[in-house]
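Sat 14:20. Reprocessing the chain from the morning session after the first attempt stalled halfway. Input below, unchanged.
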Amino acid sequence: MAPEPAPAAPAYRDNPILAALPGHLAQFIVDQNYSAYTPVDHAVWRYVMRQNYAFLKDHAHPAYVDGLRRTGIGIEKIPSIEDMNEILGRLGWAAVPVDGFIPPAAFMEFQAHNVLVIAAAMRQIDHIEYTPAPDIIHEAAGHAPIIADPEYADYLRRIGAIGAKAMSSKKDYELYEAIRRLSILKESDRPDPAAVARAEQDVAAKQAGLGPPSEMARLSRLHWWTVEYGLIGDLDCPRIYGAGLLSSIGESASCLGPEVRKIPYTLDAADYPFDITTQQPHLFVTPDFARLTEVLEQFAATMAFRVGGAEGLAKALECENVSTAQFSSGLQVSGVVAEVRTRRPGAPPCFFRTAGPTALALDGRQLAGHGRERHRDGFSSPIGTLRGQAAPLERMSDSDLAACGLEPGRPAAIEFESGLRLSGRLESTLRSPDRALLLMTFSDCTVADGSAVLFRPEWGPYDMAVGASIVSVFAGAADKSAYQQPSLVPRERTVTADRPDAALRLLDLYRQVRDVREGQRGLAALPAVWEALQAEYPCEWLLPLEILEICRQRGLHPELAAALRRYLERKALAEPGLAKLIRDGLALLDSAAAPN
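Finished this time. C-alpha cells:
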C-alpha cells in the first residue's frame, strides 16, 4: 500500500506539537490512508507483533513492553497515527505519516521538534521477517515504544536537533535517493531482478564516489548504530533498543547470537558505514542511555555549528548547499558559500562570499528588506576587527563609529586587521535589539584585498556584515520558511502492488477469518475458508495459521485443527524459506507467551 500525498496535513493541525512544526516540513507529511490497509496487512502486523512480544519481552530494554502500552500500540491491528497522537501527546511527542525514506536532514528536524516520522506503508508478506524499506511496523512498533523512557527520548530529540544543523553534500543526497530507489524496488511486488541489480550497482557506485563522509553522513551512522540498531547493557548479554531490531522478527533473534560481532559504543561508531538493505554483521552496545548523549556531545563538539571559523566555512564550501554563517554580532548569512579567504592555514577567516540568492537573519528570523530579492546574486563581507581598535566593531556605539570616521552620509575608509580595505559612503547602520551592530550599508563602495578587488562601486550598494568572527556555521537557511529553500521531497513514490481478481478473493478470505476472530462472523465460516484455501491458494501459510489459532482458542472444529496442523508441518518441511515462520507461529500457539 502506498500513502497518498497530503501537502497541508489538515488532520494534524489541531495537535499543538504538530502545529508548532516549521511550515517547510509539512511537504513531507502524507495521509496515512488507514482504510487502504488490507486484511493481509493487518494479519502481517499481528503475526510480527505477536512474535515480537513473545521474544522481546525477555530480550528488549524494559522500556519496550511498557512503551507499547503507553504509546497506544496494540497487537491485533495496525495503529492509527491519529489515535497514537492522543497518547504520545502525554509524553510530549507526536507522530506524522511519511512516504518511506525522507531526506536525513528533514528526518532529524522532525525529531528535534519531538515528532516521530512513521512510514505509512506496510511490508508485504514476502518480507515479513525483514523489509529493506521503512514501514509502519518499523516506525510505530520500533521507534515509538522506547520514547516512553525519558532519558532515551531526550537523546532522540537531541540527536535530531544536532542533526538538523549537520552539513551534507549533494553527493549525500544522490546516495540517499539511490538507496531509497533500491529499497522501493526490493519491497515492490514481484521486483524485476535486472532493475534491482542496476539499482544495487547505482548505490555501490555512489557509495564509492562519495569521498570523505560529510557531517551528516557520520552523524547518520551514529543514529543508525543507536536509534535504529542499538544494543544496551552488558557486552556479553545485551538487550535490544534499536527500532530496526525491535521491528525485525528475523534479526531481533539472530543479532544476539555470536555470529554478530558486539562492539562497545564509542565515537568510533561514526567511522562504520552501514547497508540498509541487509542484516548487520556487527552492532554496538551502550552500557546505558547516558552514554549515547556523551558520545553525541563528543561528536557535536567537532561540528561546524560548534567550531565556526575557517573550519566551519570550509565545510560549508565543500557541501555546495545552502548553509548559514553566524557572525559574533548575531547576524546570520544564509546562502551557498563560494569563497573563503584566510591569511594562512589555521588562521581565522578574513572574508567570505556566497553565490546566488542569499538572505540575512537574526535569531532565525529574516531581516526586513534583506531576503533573496535584495541579495539575489550573492553576498560578501570582511570578517574581523578594525586595525588599531581594541573593541570589536559590533560593540561600538555611534560615537565610537564617528571617532573612526564612520558617520552616515559621509565618505569613509576603513582597514581591517587582516589588511582588507573598504572605502565608500556610509549610508546606514542596522543594530540588534541589544544594540549590537549587525550591518553597515555603503554606496560607491570598493572592497580590496591587496591588488584583488572584491567589490566594485558599479555593482550597487554594499551591505557589510559586522562581526569579529564566525561563531557558527550550520546547514540550511536560518529562516527556512522565509528563504524558501528548494525542497528535497523524494521524487519517487512507494509502490502500490497491483491486485488482480485472485488477490481480491484472497483478501476476502482473510477478512472473513478476521471477522470470525472479532466476533462479527460465526465459527461455521472457517471450514469453507479452509476449503477455498486448499483449492485456490496452496501457497498460503499465514491464513491457515490464523484459522488454527481460532480453533485452538475456542476448542472447536478439532478435525479442522488437526488438518491445518498437518498441512503447516508438511509445508514447513517442503519449503525451507517458510520453515522458521511456520514453526515460530506454531510454537507461539503451543505456548502461553502470546498476549491476549
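The longest helix spans residues 39-59.
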